[in-house]
Amino acid sequence: GPPDGGWGWMIVAGCFLVTICTRAVTRCISIFFVEFQAYFGQDYARTAWIHSIVDCATMLCAPLGSLISNHVSCQVGIMLGGLLASSGLILSSFATSLEHLYLSLGVLTGLGFALCYSPAIAMVGKYFNKRKALAYGIAMSGSGIGTFILAPVVQLLIEQFSWRGALLILGGFVLNLCVCGALMRPISLKEDRKTVPEFFEQDHIPETEKQDLKRISVCSPLIKVWSRECLCYCSWKEYDFLLMPGFMVLAVSVLFMAYGCSPLFVYLVPYALSVGVSHHQAAFLMSILGVIDIVGNITFGWLTDRRCLKKHRYFCYLFAVGMDGLCCLFLPVLQNFPLLVPFSFTFGYFDGAYVTLIPVMTADVVGTSSLSSALGVVYFLHAIPYLVSPPVAGWLVDTTGSYTASFLLCGFSMIFSSMLLCFARLAKKIKRTHLRSLTSDRGMKQHMWTNGAIAYSVTAELDQKDVEFLAVDTNSCSNR
Q1: Which of 46, 156, 253, 395 has the fewest Cβ atoms nearer than 10 Å?
Q2: In this structure, how many other beta carbons lie within 10 angstroms of the beta carbon of residue 176?
Q3: CATH number assigned to the domain comprising residue 382
Q4: Which residue has better confidence, 61 or 323?
Q5: With contact defined as beta carbons under 8 Å apart, do 58 and 19 qualify?
């Protein structure tokens, strides 16, 4: 089983740095939002596409990250991702139009982040079992700590070196992903060995063929066919969880949850500025959101590892998503800095809480052996809402002239995600109790039938004996 410690803590440290370089940097792109809008003279919707494309590319290419880490190596995948993400940020510092930023900051940086994100998270799941939620809490808190530190730093960099200089420095910082990749030492678990198909078992090949295989070159047609069969079988085994009803429900709820949470990170700073908050205070709101995110990550991770709450992780996740939805519904009423601070605290805490539980929930549904592939799919499902929601929210702001409609849509989307999982769990419980009652009724009927059959045979025997006894008795009377 997983070692639950040792080198596992280095994996957690590596994953922590990966989440700083990927999720925190993505969030800090919203600080560039106002700069890009002013420099290129474009509306909210068009400028919002930059953040959307980064998020979408990160999640859309997550299965590619899983594929590379499964078939080549986790280390190679993360290092390659680091180089791509860094190149994207450096090229963005030379941007001459929004379209240029869509490609460099959006597609290239997003693809780099994708190759790093899901493999690093899956590695934590392979090294931990008993302390899984705590390990994930620490690893995922990189997103919050990174936002807390980077938000004011990025604001200072923009003031000192303009947005171009700030992007260039971020490009250098993101190269740290290559260091994280070097830490990801692979581990072999019993569960992984069980999933190896029978094609790989030596007993499957006749003895004569074994001798031939040693002599034949790697490029021989026999080996090509054999390896193709193995690859098809492996690919199917890797993704057979897609047909599980539990995973299907989780997938649909993730779509709504991702739609609701994405616009807030793009529009919190512009919204704060629109209600008269200063630039530094707006960046400070992002910092609060980030640091409380960490508290949510670690405390929720630690709490849900306790024996009393371990069984109720599912409902803890639902509660966290629902609370974030409620926060979004109240946001349009909060029109000054003192009111926006408690919002950042609450939203940040519950955002950290459910982000920690996404890999734990996925592992509970599909098991550890399919975790890397399943996380790839779960983060892939984030892609479509991440791409669509900020521009839709921007269009609503441009059309209505206020942020109210955008934030209400986000809130209702997250609440629906939570309710969907809640109803799914209730339906599962009702079905289970119904099946139990059916089996117990059948058992009772069988028991009664068995008892009835015994009783009938006993009375039949008694009746037969009574008849014989009466016959003997009447004969003796007539003789007398």
Answers
A1: 156
A2: 15
A3: 1.20.1250.20
A4: 323
A5: no
Q: Is the pLDDT of residue 455 over 80?
A: no
Which of the two residues, 299 and 176, has the higher pLDDT score? 176
Tell me the average pLDDT across 325-331.
93
Is the residue at 311 inside a domain? yes
pLDDT of residue 208 exceeding 80: no
Buried b (16+ CB within 10 A) or exposed e, 5-30: eeebeebbebbbbbbbbbbbbbbbbb
Least confident of 112-121, 181-190, 314-323: 181-190
What is the pTM for the complete model shown?
A: 0.66
- Domain carrying residue 68: 7-187+239-428
> CB of 169 within 8 A of CB of 49?
no
**Domain assignment present for 2:** no
Residue 192 domain-assigned (yes or no): no
State the SS3 of the chain: CCCCCCCHHHHHHHHHHHHHHHHHHHHHHHHHHHHHHHHHCCCHHHHHHHHHHHHHHHHHCHHHHHHHHHHCCHHHHHHHHHHHHHHHHHHHCCCCCHHHHHHHHHHHHHHHHHHHHHHHHHHHHHHCCCCHHHHHHHHHCHHHHHHHHHHHHHHHHHHHHHHHHHHHHHHHHHCCHHHHHHHCCCCCCHHHHHCCCHHHCHHHCCHHHHHHHHHCCCCCHHHHHHHHHHHHHHHHHHCHHHHCHHHHHHHHHHHHHHHHHHHHHHHHHHHHHHCCCCHHHHHHHHHHHHHHHHHHHHHHHHHCCCHHHHCCHHHHHHHHHHHHHHHHHHHHHCCCHHHHHHHHHHHHHHHHHHHHHHHHHHHHHHCCCCHHHHHHHHHHHHHHHHHHHHHHHHHHHHHHCCCHHHHHHHHHHHHHHHHHHHHHHHHHHHHHHHHHHHHHHHHHHHHHHHHHHHHHHHHHHHHHHHHHHHHHHHHHHHHC
Let me know if residue 108 belongs to a domain: yes
State the pLDDT at residue 467: 43
Which one of 108-112, 295-299, 368-372 scores highest in mean pLDDT?
108-112
Least confident range of 111-120, 355-364, 440-449: 440-449
Extract the tokens encoding 154: 């990025």
Q: What is the pLDDT of residue 462?
A: 44
Q: Are 97 and 105 in contact (CB under 8 A)?
A: no
